[in-house]
Backbone:
């Protein structure tokens, strides 16, 4: 599928007399043209269905259905920027599991891209479990006027992906880094890929892909 799309993109480049071979940094620009030509799909028309709050609630909803965990917004924790949100994460039985920070928007002091990190890793100290404090960081467009923050499909799946990393960090209970902390790269990416795939599941899309104008 990707090979076929790459061939289609190269045809567009050649047709437009680009005189260069497709490279990774060209992909999304030309993929958007492919989608418009083949499927009449315009990202601008999709964005109203992916408001940030709905995507966030969709992620949380999937995690609750899969694992029984809950997310409660808290406002009494220290944050390093006013736009950062904090959530207490609990097990189905109400037991505290960890804290999740969500840092959505770009700013001058922030590098580009999206990633997951931790302020405190799950682990054990003096025979007692240390609960994790996890952060998901992105660079999404901020709300403007009456329009909420709206995500592209790529940004939506990226947020689900990084949330998968966050769940990995929240669920760590093992005592050995090789199986619970500093794990191999393919191990690291499994939870994120698993979560990312849920973003496009029709049952999940029904949960969160709702036009903000119809609220």
Residues:
């Amino acid at each position: 599928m990707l090979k076929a799309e790459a061939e289609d993109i190269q045809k567009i480049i050649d047709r437009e007399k680009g005189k260069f071979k497709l490279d990774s940094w060209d992909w999304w620009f030309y993929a958007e043209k492919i989608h418009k030509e083949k499927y009449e799909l315009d990202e601008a028309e999709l964005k109203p269905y992916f408001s940030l709050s709905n995507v966030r609630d969709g992620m949380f909803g999937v995690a609750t259905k899969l694992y029984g965990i809950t997310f409660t917004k808290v406002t009494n924790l220290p944050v390093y920027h006013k736009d950062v949100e904090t959530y207490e994460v609990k097990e189905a039985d109400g037991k505290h599991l960890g804290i999740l920070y969500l840092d959505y928007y770009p700013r001058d002091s922030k590098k580009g891209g999206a990633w997951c990190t931790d302020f405190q890793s799950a682990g054990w100290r003096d025979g007692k479990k240390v609960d994790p404090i996890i952060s998901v960081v992105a660079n999404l467009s901020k709300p403007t006027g009456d329009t909420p923050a709206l995500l592209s499909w790529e940004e939506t799946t990226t947020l689900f992906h990084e949330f998968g990393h966050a769940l990995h960090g929240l669920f760590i209970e093992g005592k050995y880094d090789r199986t619970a902390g500093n794990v191999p790269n393919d191990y690291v990416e499994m939870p994120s890929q698993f979560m990312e795939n849920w973003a496009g599941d029709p049952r999940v899309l029904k949960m969160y892909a709702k036009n903000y104008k119809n609220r």
User: Anything to note?
Assistant: The CA atoms of residues 123 and 129 lie 6 Å apart. The helical segments are 2-15, 27-39, 43-46, 52-67, 153-171, 177-180, 185-198, 202-208. The first strand starts at residue 70 and ends at 74.
